[in-house]
Amino acid sequence: xLALEALTVVADSSSGEEGAVKxxxxxxxxxxxxxxxGLTWGRYRNTGKRxxxxxxxxxxxxxxxxxxxxxxxxxxxxxxxMHGANHES
Length: 89
Prior knowledge:
Layout: H1 2-13, H2 16-45, H3 53-56
């Protein structure tokens, strides 16, 4: 609403072609802010550059082959540490 009032004031105060040029300048200046905001928001939001894991990532799995060998069973232990533990090697 304010933009239309400013446009009519500029157009009424000028005559002929000069008024039309000023009206175009006022419109361009009024649209510059929202246009800049929209471009900046779109650029930094990266709406077109998102990664969809299910669509963009391919993975293949093969049949697993392996065996576990039972070494020993320790039950009823009272120490906090286990003698012969392999977490430090």
